[in-house]
Design a protein that fits this description.
51% of the residues lie in helices and 24% in strands. The chain has 5 helices and 8 strands, in the order H-H-H-E-E-H-H-E-E-E-E-E-E. The strands form 2 sheets. It has a 4-stranded antiparallel sheet, with no helix packed on it. A 4-stranded antiparallel sheet has the order 5-6-7-8. The longest helix is centred in the N-terminal third of the chain and has 54 residues, at 2-55. The chain is elongated, with a radius of gyration of 56 Å.
């Protein structure tokens, strides 16, 4: 009986212990679960704060953004200033080139001198000892055709100007060329007032006021044109 009682007490204690252990385990599990929830909530909060920190710039970063923004504006202004400066330099260069392209007056005055002394070039080639009435002139010694005569002045005037100038002064006949004696064209008097005007880089105009008893009072205008880097008289006009 005593043995049965002892066994019963031990059995009851074991049951009681298991229940306590089971209850303790259950409580511990619940506690761990609640703690886990707290940890999860805490982690989520920290993660959210981390993302907020990433999105929100620091004071130093904000200052850097402002500096970069200002730099961007300055860059835009700098580009505009550079473009404006480049444009100004280009215009200055064009003006300098334009000034450099202005031809010295001496170039044209030399041509005027040759024009005024145009007969000096052929006087030694004319035989003034014999006058040929049928051709109303004196025969040239070496120049046989009008074309040859025009070519004698190709360095100072165009072929057309040479033709216009000499056409009334020469006759051709029997393989020879004859000079008709007559007053020459009016000369330019460079002691009087004259002006030289630039038309473009390859054309200039000289105006001279002529006044003589033989020809009267009027303006002589010589036009100079550049032909293969050589300046020539390209037109003679009287007004």
């Amino acid at each position: 009986m005593k043995y049965i009682l002892t066994v019963s007490i031990v059995f009851l204690l074991l049951i009681s212990g298991c229940g306590t252990t089971k209850e303790t385990s259950t409580q511990k599990a619940q506690s761990n679960q609640q703690h886990g929830k707290k940890l999860v909530n805490l982690d989520n909060k920290k993660i959210a704060e981390m993302f907020l920190d990433l999105d929100t710039p620091t004071k130093e970063e904000a200052n850097n953004i402002d500096v970069n923004t200002n730099k961007g504006g300055n860059t835009s202004n700098s580009e505009y200033d550079l473009e404006s400066e480049t444009k100004n330099k280009t215009e200055e260069k064009e003006n300098i080139n334009e000034e450099q392209n202005v031809v010295n007056d001496d170039v044209f005055l030399k041509l005027v001198h040759e024009y005024n002394h145009i007969f000096d070039r052929i006087v030694s080639d004319v035989d003034y000892n014999k006058f040929y009435e049928q051709y109303i002139g004196y025969r040239f010694k070496t120049i046989k055709t009008k074309k040859e005569l025009y070519n004698k002045f190709s360095d100072i005037m165009t072929k057309q100007v040479a033709h216009n100038y000499w056409d009334d002064f020469i006759n051709e006949g029997k393989g020879s060329l004859y000079l008709i004696p007559k007053d020459g064209h009016p000369k330019l008097n460079m002691d009087d007032s004259y002006s030289i005007e630039k038309i473009n880089n390859s054309k200039y105009k000289l105006t001279n006021k002529h006044n003589s008893d033989l020809h009267g009072k009027f303006d002589i205008i010589l036009t100079f044109t550049k032909h293969k880097d050589i300046w020539k008289i390209s037109d003679i006009s009287y007004y």
